[in-house]
Amino acid sequence: MKIRVRGSHSVSLAAEIGLARLAVQFEGEDAAATMAQAQSLANRIQAELRALPADALERFSFEAPQRYSWRPTAPDGSILPPRTTVTIEITAAFRDFEVLGERTAAWGAHPGVQLRGVEWSLTPETKPANADAVLAEAVRDARRRAEVLAAAAGAGEVRILEIADPGLGSHEPVQVAEQYLRAKSVMDAGGETVSPSPSSIWLSAAVEAVFEA
């Protein structure tokens, strides 16, 4: 007798990295002055990041400035002088969440800075081991389900014949899905920045298996 089952397992883990996403953005009629204003603030933020303790910050990156120009229209239909918007996207991955909270609070209160949010994740050092453990539990869950079905049907011990991702055929690799929960910084009624708090990281795996009993 063949028994086809699906095994799954999920685990919630504490976040180890907080990836802050923010942008420096300014708008003005003078394109050169607007660019200089954005670059000046971006350089200031970069200097602040470089000054942080090495164990507080995993990495950071600054994208090249993006410039967009247009000519606005007045209510009477007349064309106004051209305006330019300059945006510099920034990411910073923190290991120290207290420092992350301090920096996002300071940046959020600064004119010209937009907080995009924070993404939580595991470190590259711990993610593989946890993913392997979750996958192994999914396989054990599949075997347990097959054993329950076999016992209920009055069959003997089960022997695995095939294992694969859900919906796939033979010899396809099983995979582990990772859900990064996001938490955005928000503004309270008084205009103060509310620092993000860590969210759990969910690792989940599912397999389909065929057993013989």
Structure report:
There is one protein chain. The protein has 213 residues and is α+β, with helices and mostly antiparallel strands. The protein has two domains: 2-13 and 126-182 and 188-212, Protein of unknown function (DUF541), domain 1 (Translation Initiation Factor IF3), CATH 3.30.110; 17-121, 2-Layer Sandwich (Alpha-Beta Plaits), CATH 3.30.70.2970. The protein is built from three helices and twelve strands, in the order ββαβββαβαββββββ. The strands form three sheets. Strands 2, 3, 4, 5, 6 and 9 form a six-stranded antiparallel sheet that branches. The longest helix has 26 residues, at 127-152. It starts with a strand and ends with a strand.
What would a concise description of this structure say?
The protein has helices at 31-50, 97-108, 127-152, and strands at 2-13, 17-28, 57-62, 66-70, 83-94, 113-121, 159-164, 176-179, 182-183, 186-187, 193-194, 201-212. It has 213 residues and is α+β, with helices and mostly antiparallel strands. It comes from Gulosibacter macacae.
The CATH homologous superfamily of the largest domain is named Protein of unknown function (DUF541), domain 2
What's the β-strand tally?
Answer: 12
User: So what's the CATH class of the largest domain?
Assistant: Alpha Beta
Biggest sheet, in brief? 6 strands, antiparallel
Q: Averaged pLDDT, please?
A: 86
Principal-axes geometry comes out as: elongated
Count up the helices: 3
**Radius of gyration over alpha carbons?**
26 Å
InterPro entries: 26kDa_periplasmic_antigen (IPR052022), SIMPL/DUF541 (IPR007497)
Protein name: SIMPL domain-containing protein
GO biological process, one term: DNA damage response
